[in-house]
## 1
Amino acid sequence: MTTTEAPPGSLPGTARAARPQERTAQRRRAILDAATRVFGERGYNNGSLVEIAEIVGITHAGVLHHFGSKEQLLLAVLAHRDEVDIERLATQQRPVGAEFLSHLVATAQANTERSGIVQTYAVLAAESVTGDHPAQEFFRGRFAVLRGDVADALGLTVGAPASDERVVAAASAIIAVMDGLQVQWLLDAETVAMPDTLRFVIDAIVESLRRSVAATP
Amino acid sequence: MTTTEAPPGSLPGTARAARPQERTAQRRRAILDAATRVFGERGYNNGSLVEIAEIVGITHAGVLHHFGSKEQLLLAVLAHRDEVDIERLATQQRPVGAEFLSHLVATAQANTERSGIVQTYAVLAAESVTGDHPAQEFFRGRFAVLRGDVADALGLTVGAPASDERVVAAASAIIAVMDGLQVQWLLDAETVAMPDTLRFVIDAIVESLRRSVAATP
DNA sequence: GTCTATATCGTGATAGAC
DNA sequence: GTCTATCACGATATAGAC
């Protein structure tokens, strides 16, 4: 798709200037998709603008025209992935409590069919802890929000405030299992059963938490 | 320590040729330490031989003289870390069963005082899933061995064969929690309590496993 | 065993033509 | 909006002097 035909539905004669911002938006999205793939396959440091540009069918100068710098491109990739996720959550109303926890398992199940996204996330999250990585703030914030969401769901499920430190620790643990399993699965997909293992751990944690809260609320 | 004095205890006159292989071994160890630090702080791709050499007090050509290439240096770093761990395990006899699981918690506790090692491990493990990363085989094998060890300990603890798939899944999960918590902790040390959280999860998993095995052995 | 010097390459970024 | 051309920089690796 490197030709420059008019967008479908546009009138002849008005084609070129009709919706320039629309074609630009398409290009940007194509670049974002390519960048997501490359950063996932090679990491941020090792991924190159030239490779991203080649996938889209332009030169690396074209990529920089749209995003200014490699760093801004990375942040756009991460923001874009969040937007997509939010859209999906907005369509169906957001699950709460135990349903939210089941939703995590369903996500793990879905992830077994899209190793690209999983790898992008896993590689960039770990890479972000180095030096002054551009995505460091992003992931710090992301984990904080995620811990809050999982703690809310756990609190609702076991009947304890989400601020209870045992609940918060359990939330950290569930997120940690998801991330840790992803790395193991990426290295050895046949041995590691992500969704089943996650289901098992969540059940074990909820059960243990329930007991603990019942004993000393 | 960039001077070239004779090793302590060597006789005058025989100093220079006395134990050349010993000084070389010291140099190699110094390079390994520096490389461990740099690869941890910056990742493998982003870490540079020049920076490693500067820490040791030589040029990057000197580093290459000892290790041949950057890739071989990385593999030497990983092998060296394993040797150190094995030595420590060989000194005290290896803990088994529930004691081995407690040993994992103790390790997590010790890790809170050495973020450098933790970061090296976390960053390299995730980076290793990319493309044809030189450490990919190393980490694949490492996870396999680790899963086996934890499964052995779990099997002994709950009275089930280590080959039981529920036991293996539980072993994957425990390793995943350790790794996932490390990333969260590196990004936000104040919020994430590694050892306590790990203890909680291991207890929950063991308890759940015990129940499951008792129901259907 | 370590140095200096150099080869070779790839990177991100900029400038200006079209 | 995308191109070509070029820049400045840093990387790994090699060759040869000392």
Note: The mean pLDDT of chain A is 91.
## 2
Amino acid sequence: MDVAIAGGFERFYEVLRRLTPRSELSLTAASTLRRLERSGPHRLCELHVPEGVSQPAMTQLVTRLEKEGLASRGSDPDDGRAVVVTITEAGREAVAKRREGRTRALSALLEQLPAEDHAAIVAALPALERLGELITEQSI
Amino acid sequence: MDVAIAGGFERFYEVLRRLTPRSELSLTAASTLRRLERSGPHRLCELHVPEGVSQPAMTQLVTRLEKEGLASRGSDPDDGRAVVVTITEAGREAVAKRREGRTRALSALLEQLPAEDHAAIVAALPALERLGELITEQSI
DNA sequence: ATTTTTATATCACTAGCTTATGAACCGGCG
DNA sequence: CGCCGGTTCATAAGCTAGTGATATAAAAAT
């Protein structure tokens, strides 16, 4: 049974990939910004593991985000080594804009879907959300 | 409403990204192999548009796949320009292996989910599948 | 006071994409 | 037939975002 789910998810993953505007933000950049938006400022070392990239990659990503004004580096008064990354207002806007683009594309598709399919997807959303929480906890 | 769906999908997309073993195959490579497995040999020009990459990128990808023995280049007897790409047995195995890895990871998560969530996801699968078909048609 | 560990940055390198361009092949038309 | 515009694929050069190895500096441990 789980094989069927995995297969379905696989197809679906491609759908989402296609649905995502190939805009400015890379996958990791977008994901990191969303994390910063969702759960506030983080130290660099708290970001690279859950985002699934190496520490140097996160350093570089933060540098890019900072250069583009989407995030800012701060320091922890209690730990001179730490770098605390915070999302900026422009960063929030970028996330919102990206979400809008995806929503628009998705809406156009959902319209063409039978009402019962639409309903089935809506019904599954909370479950998908909880699935998301599960995986987020475990990989931190 | 669609905003909620898009938001849920966004989270879900990250889940899938995390669930995918960062193994040998790139996203496009895996997606292309699956397409070749699903709907048989294709010309190069029939691949790069639906996969959302430039034609040179597809040429390079096919070269890599060929070098790794996962796909093979053939020619169309009726059109000397065309290159016909076919998945090899090794390619099918690579796809299967990747799917297994994802299934294992997903199963471990699904186990921890309440039964009704599990059921809701299963119930939404056909709808997700049709959504996938929709987008595949439209971007060809 | 050393030593070890932790947090971040830097370096050199690679994969996989892009645009621009080139080369081979097709179909049609004088 | 022979040329010509349009396809199809390949090549070249350059960019982005990743990697592992390693350096540096602060904190923690001995």
Note: Chain A has one domain: 24-138.
